[in-house]
Amino acid sequence: MATAAAQQTARTQPGTGRDGTVGTTDADDAFARAFDAAVAADERIEPRDWMPDAYRATLVRQIAQHAHSEIIGMQPEANWITRAPSLRRKAILMAKVQDEAGHGLYLYSAAETLGTGRDELLDKLHSGRQKYSSIFNYPTLTWADVGAIGWLVDGAAITNQVPLCRCSYGPYARAMVRICKEESFHQRQGYELLLALSKGTPEQHAMAQDAVDRWWWPSLMMFGPPDDESAHSAQSMAWKIKRHSNDELRQRFVDICVPQAESLGLTLPDPDLRWNEERGQHDFGAIDWTEFREVLKGNGPCNEQRITQRRRAHDEGAWVREAAAAHAAKHSRPGAGAPAAPAPTTASADTTGTTGAPQA
Ligand code: BYC
């Protein structure tokens, strides 16, 4: 049996085209076989390894959508930074929103290892050619929404993303390890915030319940369409990019949330939610997939606001990118004496999209 190192060498072809194309059919076959064997053996595919074009395209699509979700996801929560009810809550929220910017950076970097630059991806986001998560097209109407996002949205994110730590593509899997650790903290801060409100005055309890009522169903939609309508799941699971189907993860999330809602003293807004002894899982009510499709088409309550704000932040960050590029050029000149600065990163200058007046 070939050693892991030998298999790695067999997959890695210096001079192989960026698109994974190789010169001859025999070579193609050998690389394809090595790729399939690596995936079957649960080994990681690394950036210099040969990979099918469609595998690369699927990863870029998913990682880009994920990265866009992280930076667009900063907006609804940042809306409450200036109005956080205490210094402690403000510091926590600022740290969380900064974490989301960091997640965007790890993920855009992971996409770069596949040969797709950040500028190209941001351009596709801004022009509507790439998606971001449906969840961030809903407004944050009250302070309790910060808690509901932490508990439910970050909770759904963790459920979805922990299996991605075992994704077959190395850079994505490794980025997910750190992201999941930070998401766990985010989920706990949301839970703790909601618990404080739930145990507070009747008005605070009502505010927490109202937030959960509004965020519950959109959180279930985060996992994507039902399995029989999921265009990409079967292939992504065969390639071990995804490890579980959308419905499996959605069910897991429901089962996790039910006891947590009880501890919080809050009710999940689903009259059909009940334990099914036979299945050993909770049954839950029908999801409004028409609403999901409308949000994906751009007709959610905040789609337009989110993308307008993102474009504005990008434009306002142009001078930072230009200054970083000028600085890098200056220090990379021969004899400049200082180590070359890293190439300017688009998102580092403008990831937030959160400047300006409070939005929904
Ligand atoms: N929203 O065949 P399917 C976060 C699209 S960040 C929008 O099942 P796939 C957080 C899908 O892209 C949360 N679009 O697709 C951040 C596809 O369209 P295209 C983001 C969705 O890829 C800040 C079509 O529907 N997390 O948690 O196999 C603060 C068919 O779907 C959605 C990730 O991105 C949706 N909800 O599975 C707090 C995790 N669902 O591309 C929290 C990584 C589906 O053909 N991504 N679509 O035009 C994934 O795990 C998978 O991409 C998905 C979808 C489960 C989302």
Automatic annotation (TrEMBL):
Keywords: Oxidoreductase
Record's keyword annotation contains Oxidoreductase: yes
EC class (word): oxidoreductase
Ranges annotated as biased composition (Low complexity): 334-360
Region annotated Disordered, chain positions: 1-25, 325-360
One GO MF term: phenylacetyl-CoA 1,2-epoxidase activity
BP term (GO), one: phenylacetate catabolic process
InterPro entries, per database record: Aromatic_CoA_ox/epox (IPR052703), Ferritin-like (IPR012347), Ferritin-like_SF (IPR009078), PaaA (IPR011881), PaaA_PaaC (IPR007814)
Organism superkingdom: Bacteria
Enzyme Commission number(s): 1.14.13.149
GO CC annotations, alphabetized: cytosol
Protein name: 1,2-phenylacetyl-CoA epoxidase subunit A
Origin organism lineage: Bacteria, Bacillati, Actinomycetota, Actinomycetes, Kitasatosporales
